[in-house]
Design goal:
binds heme C; Cytochrome Bc1 Complex, Chain D, domain 2; 397 residues
Length: 397
């Protein structure tokens, strides 16, 4: 691990070299040459340049509610552009006809850096992943790939757009997935104050608090051993699966009983056994074990990248933690402390100042490019948010 002060010195040195070059040349550097790309700080393979025609088509599909029965659910209903391409209001996602999902919708910003998808890593590629939500009864409810393709084919304009984006293939299941994946790969949002400091040679982008937080992140708190920061890039994930105590805490909460809403504002409580008897299961989440069927993978979840994390509350696979301060408290307490938890999750003894410095550092991972991506998504949305209601007929007296 590189300590913050060493790299601070390195980047200051780099900045001075740049300054010297500018002076030698005798002219100010043109603004364009200085402007870092949106991908500054990302691993190189995460910053591909997908075909712009396919990206535009994928963006239109992503925003289009007509991709589900009743024209209700688009991808963007659960990956809301203005909410960091996640959902801020609810812990676990709600899909078609109000059916609820057991997991929190992750952000799609920088999703191109992910090597496996979903909290349990069960999908190997973006092209494969899209069929999860497109087909699932609880999400967009198309049932089969053929039904999804038929639905898109019926919407005016898409056949032509697909022929333009994929001249030899037109609209097929493969090109539908490819267009959505191309758009997702274009959601590049790095170049944060942290990236400009660490990889852009700009010593002044991090506040003193964020700078101290970075040192705690890489040092005393050991966060970077899973949320990786490397020499020339930071994915802020190790692409692996760990038990950080969240699964065991939510299992313990479930055992204490459930609050069930009977009518708005009216709740009754059910015991765990009653829920299992009535529904056949308790909606438990065993994490990676659900995919690998290996006992040792129980409660292991994918390490999320922490890029733009200040925009994507609530946190963890079940959305059980509302704010970054509480995430830090969870780690500082040493997680749930149960047997089987990753040994790196242990009481950290952080001071209040160190905790707030860590939060300041996490805020410095927010990319200035997110607002542009959100605005582009809305500008392209082809479905009106509200359908025109039939105008009421004047009542005859
Ligand atoms: C009903 C809400 C909902 C809808 C609609 C939805 N998603 Fe998701 N999405 C989720 C949830 C919840 C997860 C996490 C599920 C899990 O881990 O098992 C997820 C996970 C993902 C992931 C994995 C990200 C990662 O880092 O692992 C991708 C990619 C994704 N969705 C893309 C899409 C696309 C593309 C669409 C539209 C075709 C879509 N989603 C529609 C709720 C939704
Ligand atoms: C042993 C590996 C490991 C270590 C060490 C670790 N994390 Fe995590 N982190 C994870 C995993 C795995 C998750 C996802 C857990 C889940 O979804 O239930 C996570 C989730 C998070 C989240 C929530 C992100 C989101 O989008 O929901 C934040 C914030 C976070 N970690 C910050 C930190 C900080 C700060 C530290 C140091 C104090 C730290 N992590 C140390 C593995 C680790």
């Amino acid at each position: 691990m590189v300590s913050a002060s060493v790299s601070g010195t390195a980047s200051r040195a780099a900045a001075m070299v740049l300054l010297a070059l500018t002076i030698v040349a005798g002219v100010a550097m043109p603004a364009a040459a200085r402007k870092p790309s949106a991908g500054l700080g990302l691993p190189p393979d995460a910053v591909s340049a997908p075909d712009p025609v396919r990206v535009a088509l994928g963006r239109r599909l992503f925003m289009d509610r007509r991709l589900s029965p009743n024209d209700t659910m688009s991808c963007a209903m659960c990956h809301v552009p203005e909410q960091g391409f996640a959902v801020n209001e609810i812990a676990t996602a709600v899909g078609l006809e109000g059916r609820s999902l057991k997991r929190n919708a992750p952000t799609l910003l920088n999703v191109g850096l992910q090597r496996t998808l979903f909290h349990d890593g069960r999908s190997p590629s973006l092209e494969d992943q899209v069929w999860g939500p497109l087909l699932a009864r609880e999400e967009m409810g198309n049932g089969t790939k053929a039904a999804a393709v038929r639905r898109v084919a019926r919407i005016p304009g898409y056949r032509q757009r697909f022929r333009k984006a994929f001249p030899d293939r037109g609209l097929t299941a493969g090109t539908l997935a490819a267009a959505l994946a191309a758009y997702e790969r274009s959601l590049v949002a790095a170049d944060s104050p942290f990236d400009r400091f660490r990889y852009g040679g700009d010593p002044d982008t991090l506040s003193p608090a964020a700078l101290r937080g970075l040192a705690v992140f890489e040092g005393k708190a050991g966060c970077a051993s899973c949320h990786r920061v490397d020499g020339d890039h930071a994915s802020l994930t190790d692409h692996a699966f760990h038990d950080t105590g969240i699964g065991s805490l939510s299992r313990a909460r479930r055992k204490q009983g459930y609050a069930v809403q009977l009518a708005p504002g009216e709740f009754t409580s059910l015991r765990h056994e009653e829920v299992v008897a009535a529904f056949g299961n308790d909606d438990a989440d065993d994490g990676r074990q659900e995919h690998t069927r290996r006992l040792e993978d129980r409660d292991r979840f994918k390490t999320p990248s922490l890029r733009n994390v200040a925009l994507t509350a609530p946190y963890m696979h079940d959305g059980s933690i509302a704010a970054l301060e509480e995430v830090i408290d969870h780690y500082d307490r040493g997680g749930s402390g149960h047997a089987g938890q990753d040994p790196r999750i242990r009481p950290l003894g952080l001071t209040n100042a160190e905790k707030s410095d860590l939060v300041a550092f996490l805020h410095a991972l927010t990319s200035p490019h997110v607002t542009t991506l959100a605005a582009e998504a809305r500008a392209d949305a082809s479905t009106p948010v509200f359908r025109a209601l039939p105008s009421p007929r004047p009542k005859k007296r």
